[in-house]
């Protein structure tokens, strides 16, 4: 709840108007002293956060100029999650997205991480393999994209109205899967070597890990398919390998059990989410970052569904909710204990100083969908205005 905008009703009084004004002013001052829920401190494992506003990962397809973009959004004690960063040459699905599988990648990330740390922020690298969401042109040697299945992804509409086509994938053999797990492990090590404070495993949005998790995409009949336990095996093997490499205190994971991105959905998302939330406790990871189901609209405002509550209660670490929240909704779920932190995507994209705007109740810049993935290094990227 946004405590600063709460209206207080005064009892009927016979005092003069000047006295009433003094009372009103006193109440406003007391109200202003109350903390804004999203801006209260939080202890996330070994990390001390000054506020609960998290920059969600945002693919921008501008990997040639990210230093200014991230440093603009860094605040002392804030948590930033870098855009999805590819773990291997087979993991690419889009042009101009960053990688973390070579020594050159590590060196290129170092000054960006340094710029974020100079502002006092924490920086996690989200590590990513797109699986079947790719084309022959982006794969080494023009090979078929790798996946849990041979079923392809249907055409996807882009923000600028184009249909995006993907190439038919090749099903990974059981013998090939450990190599993909190891790609994630090495990427995590590289991220830490580049100076990142931790890594977030991208297990959402229809990419390779979710292609194993969800039964619409996983039609395997081996130990990686069929039952819920089998479909989750690959994801948990990736988690286990990374935890052993860099420590669970540096590891988060992103999940979207209720989403249907890239033709990837599940017939029982509740069981999937509860199983993963419970099993991840065995690996003692730092956080789960979960995408909220679509919010209902009531009287012109979106209403939080609270469908994530069972998984927040099942998981022992930090819980991050991501669902298109605003200042009021985000504060409300913090106060109610529904989540520990709230990740903001499009609002943070368009408002580099989002925590400051939340603090003073300033108007927000509107984001422009048409420039989300355009190549311009300024417009729609680093060109959104700040208050100062």
Keywords:
disordered N terminus, about 30% helix, two-stranded antiparallel ribbon, 17 strands, about 400 residues, 8-stranded parallel β-barrel, 12 helices, fatty acid biosynthesis, oxidoreductase, alpha/beta, flavoprotein, TIM Barrel, NADH:flavin oxidoreductase/NADH oxidase N-terminal domain-containing protein, lipid metabolism
Would you mind describing this structure in some detail?
Helix content is 30%, strand content 15%. With 388 residues, the protein is α/β, with parallel strands linked by helices. It folds into 2 domains: 1-34; 36-371, TIM Barrel (Alpha-Beta Barrel), CATH 3.20.20.70. Strands 3-4-6-11-12-13-16-17 form an 8-stranded parallel beta barrel. Helix 4 (177-193) runs parallel beside helix 7 (233-246). 44% of the residues are buried.
Tally the beta strands: 17
Distance between the termini: 27 Å
Could you state the order of secondary-structure elements as H and E? HEEEHEEHEEEEEHEHHHEHEEEHEHEHH
Number of domains: 2
The CATH superfamily title of the largest domain: Aldolase class I
Radius of gyration: 22 Å
Helices, by number, come to 12
Organism: Triticum aestivum (Wheat)
Keywords: Fatty acid biosynthesis, Fatty acid metabolism, Flavoprotein, FMN, Lipid biosynthesis, Lipid metabolism, NADP, Oxidoreductase, Oxylipin biosynthesis
Cofactor: FMN
Protein name: NADH:flavin oxidoreductase/NADH oxidase N-terminal domain-containing protein
